[in-house]
């Protein structure tokens, strides 16, 4: 089958031919329909330090997808051939304490589809049936193909009660922008998002941000004054991984504020701990999506009228993958979809 793979330890990805994956007795064989390009795939494309340490070569990558069930192992129940599915990319062990308690997102032995094992940028993908998630008819292929990052946004945004709260989102990447729409949908008052990229800030504005602030030339505290926010933000969602953005968030939080951290900063990032301690901030790290509460919430949010479709800005046939990656690398894109049919 056709697959988009890292064939040598260097930047880029190549279209290649690989054997069909074997289907174990608890596995599902999925025929891929559409995939989306993740920020992680860009790290892998660029072959940065993290990728060099993490990605086996040769291997095909990718973990944002929608497809249809094309086969299944003898033990699999609850799925039908032809059914549309996406899948949770974190494969958990099933035997650690958190897994046994149903807190699969906290599994200490998690491995990643398209990161530690063969991915979804291929005609077929095999995953444990446990990880597959059925897609209802009223959710489009496009939206289903971005459930992985949409799930990051939902998991982070729903970590704290947002009803009537003023929310700061740092980082208008695809995940931060989707978080804007979610926060507004569930009843936040002001949702302010920051970035240094005007294209992305414009998209965030279209998706409901009260203010989209370019911190390279605008003062966040002045924006807060304009909005009559005299005390500070109630909830912060850090979605940039940028240390300066995180520090600015800590400075502008109200006392007793709640902060969820999704962005991945350099491990030696320093902050002013006095902001955390004397403000009594509550800080929560977010990894992936809750299995599978986040997935049910995603469907329910869409079915209750949340529209995240403007985040999808580009479509390409899979053979045009280089254009797709170029769009992502340009910073002038939201989500980029590759069609495998
Ligand atoms: P992205 O890289 O597309 O977006 C990050 C944005 O932050 C960019 O638009 C960038 O311009 C912006 N930024 C840079 N400096 C800034 C500053 N000083 N203030 C505000 N914004 C600034 O990333 P994404 O795909 O949307 O993901 C968001 C973050 O979440 C990334 O750090 C990613 O690595 C991380 N992530 C974490 C998980 C997890 O499970 N914890 C999962 C997926 C992604
Ligand atoms: Zn586990």
Features:
binds zinc ion; alpha/beta; 18 strands; 7-stranded mixed β-sheet; binds nicotinamide-adenine-dinucleotide; 341 residues; 29% helix; 12 helices
3D architecture notes:
The chain is an alpha/beta fold. It has twelve helices and 18 strands. The protein has helices spanning 39-46, 49-54, 97-100, 141-145, 147-157, 174-185, 198-206, 220-226, 243-252, 273-277, 293-303, 321-330; strands spanning 2-6, 14-17, 27-36, 59-60, 64-72, 84-87, 90-91, 111-112, 124-128, 132-134, 167-170, 191-195, 211-214, 233-238, 253-261, 282-285, 312-317, 335-339. Strands 3, 5, 6, 9, 10, 17 and 18 form a seven-stranded mixed sheet that branches. It has a six-stranded parallel sheet with strand order 13-12-11-14-15-16, with helices on both faces. β15, α10 and β16 (282-285) form a beta-alpha-beta unit. The longest helix has 12 residues, at 174-185. The radius of gyration is 20 Å and the shape is globular. The site of nicotinamide-adenine-dinucleotide has 27 residues, from α6, β12 and α9.
Number of H/I helices: 12
* Helix content bin: 25-40%
Oligomer class: single chain
Say how many strands there are. Answer: 18
**Principal-axes shape call:** globular
Our estimate of the beta-strand percent is 25-35%
* Cα gyration radius (Å): 20 Å
Binding site for Zn(2+) 2: 93, 96, 99, 107
EC number: 1.1.1.103
Cofactor: Zn(2+)
Binding site for NAD(+): 175, 195, 200, 262-264, 286-287
């Amino acid at each position: 089958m056709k697959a988009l793979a890292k064939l040598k330890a260097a930047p880029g990805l190549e279209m290649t031919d690989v054997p069909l994956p074997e289907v174990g007795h608890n596995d599902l064989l999925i025929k891929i329909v559409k995939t989306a390009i993740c920020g992680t795939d860009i790290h892998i494309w660029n072959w940065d330090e993290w990728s060099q340490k993490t990605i086996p070569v040769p291997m095909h990558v990718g973990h944002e997808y929608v497809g249809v069930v094309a086969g299944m192992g003898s033990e699999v129940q609850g799925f039908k051939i032809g059914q549309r599915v996406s899948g949770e990319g974190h494969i958990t062990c099933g035997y650690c304490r958190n897994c046994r308690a149903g807190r699969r997102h906290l599994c200490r032995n998690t491995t990643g589809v398209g990161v530690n094992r063969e991915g979804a940028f291929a005609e077929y993908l095999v995953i444990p049936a446990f990880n597959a998630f059925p897609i209802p008819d009223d959710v489009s292929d496009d939206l289903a193909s971005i459930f992985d990052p949409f799930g990051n946004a939902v998991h982070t945004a729903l970590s704290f009660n947002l009803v009537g709260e003023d929310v700061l989102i740092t980082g208008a990447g695809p995940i931060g922008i989707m978080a804007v729409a979610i926060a507004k949908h569930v009843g936040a008052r002001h949702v302010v998002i920051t970035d240094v990229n005007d294209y992305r800030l414009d998209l965030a504005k279209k998706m409901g941000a009260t203010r989209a602030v370019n911190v390279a030339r605008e003062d966040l505290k002045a924006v807060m004054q304009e909005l009559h926010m005299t005390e500070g933000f109630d909830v912060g969602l850090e979605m940039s991984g940028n240390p300066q953005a995180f520090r600015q968030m800590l400075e502008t939080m109200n006392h007793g504020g709640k902060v969820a951290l999704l962005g991945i900063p350099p491990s030696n990032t320093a902050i002013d701990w006095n902001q955390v301690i004397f403000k009594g901030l509550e800080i929560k790290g977010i990894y992936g999506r809750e299995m599978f509460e986040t997935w049910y919430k995603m469907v329910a949010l869409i079915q209750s009228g949340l529209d995240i479709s403007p985040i999808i800005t580009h479509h390409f046939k899979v053979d045009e993958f280089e254009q797709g990656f170029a769009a992502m690398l340009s910073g002038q894109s939201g989500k980029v979809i590759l069609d495998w049919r």
